[in-house]
Design a protein that fits this description.
This protein is an alpha+beta fold and 311 residues long. It is built from ten helices and eleven strands. The longest helix is centred in the last third of the chain and has 20 residues.
């Protein structure tokens, strides 16, 4: 390894929960995400030199998701005193519900891993990235981290052991995402959730999740449309997002397979089985927020099958 080595990594944004899999299901998006650069530092240990577009984020490596994931990895390698300098490019706002903190954590771990010659696989890096992401909301869960790292649609069978399953993505599946410019932090969004779920809700939601996984393997879009319905989390969080029910209705009426809250919100996503429907919904959603004079971002994406990568 050269002392002059510089490593640059991109980690994508992600949609977690996907209506039917609270804390256990997520997929990666194209284009949007965070960059992290690692190079040799001037002092012992890891320092964060600059955070571009992330003024509210801490440069203390122990209070930053990218820093923590990198430090956990360095500790596992016995290299925590190695002089390293980190630069973070926050290409999306925090509190969007699109896995911003997870993307930084993934990029931090992957960049340090590449700097030292890739001693760990992406699957092994999930532990360090998830520990980093835990700094943001206090919960150890990989529904954003795993898809950002691995790409595709990911089912996390067990968060504690990070037993993750990469699910197939049917050809033609498109995603429309709208982010109204309001901020909802995950830790605040979790506070509105009741710990009690009825047996009826549990039974139907379990059936919806099982049917959704089956629809991916079978490329069965009518089945996907029947099961993409959140009976538990969405009804409790919808009130935090102005206009959510209007946006959902517009999407479903225009032919979306399903529409729900992305992660903790306020971003909203829908899945579509062709580009024509996706483009129509993009226009409807954009017009809605324009008419309301609400600042927003709206975009169409394929599901990112690659995940994080080194430039």
């Amino acid at each position: 390894m050269s002392n002059n080595l510089t490593v640059k990594v991109f980690a994508p944004a992600s949609v977690a929960n996907v209506a039917v899999g609270y804390d256990i299901l997520g997929f990666a998006l194209m284009g949007l995400g965070d960059d992290v650069i690692i190079r040799k530092g001037k002092v012992e240990g890891l320092t964060i030199k600059t955070i571009h577009k992330g003024r509210s984020l801490s440069k203390d490596p122990l209070k930053n998701t990218a820093g923590v994931s990198a430090i956990r990895l360095l500790q596992s390698l016995g290299l925590e005193r190695e002089p390293l300098e980190m630069e973070i490019y926050k290409n999306m706002s925090i509190g969007t519900g699109l896995g911003s903190s997870a993307a930084s954590a993934v990029a931090g771990a992957l960049a340090v891993n590449a700097y030292f010659g890739n001693p760990y696989s992406k699957m092994q890096l999930l532990q360090y990235a998830t520990e980093g992401e835990q700094v943001a909301d206090g919960a150890f869960h990989a529904d954003n981290v795993a898809p950002s790292m691995l790409g595709s649609m990911i089912l996390v069978r067990d968060n504690k052991t990070l037993d993750c399953i990469k699910l197939p993505v049917p050809n033609g599946l498109r995603v429309v995402v709208v982010y109204p410019h309001i901020q909802i932090l995950t830790k605040d969004s979790r506070r509105v959730l009741s710990p009690n779920v009825s047996l009826k809700q549990h039974t139907q939601q379990s059936a919806n999740l099982g049917a959704f996984v089956a629809s991916l393997y079978k490329t069965d879009f009518p089945l996907m449309q029947r099961c993409l319905n959140d009976l538990i989390i969405e009804p409790q969080r919808a009130k935090l997002i102005p206009g959510f029910m209007d946006i959902k209705r517009l999407g479903l009426d225009a032919g979306a397979l399903g529409c729900s809250i992305s992660g903790a919100g306020p971003s909203i996503f829908c899945l579509c089985n062709n580009s024509h429907i996706a483009e129509n919904i993009h226009e409807l959603w954009s017009n809605y927020y324009t008419d309301k004079k609400q600042l927003f971002d709206c975009f169409i994406s394929d599901i990112n099958k690659e995940g994080a990568y080194v430039y």
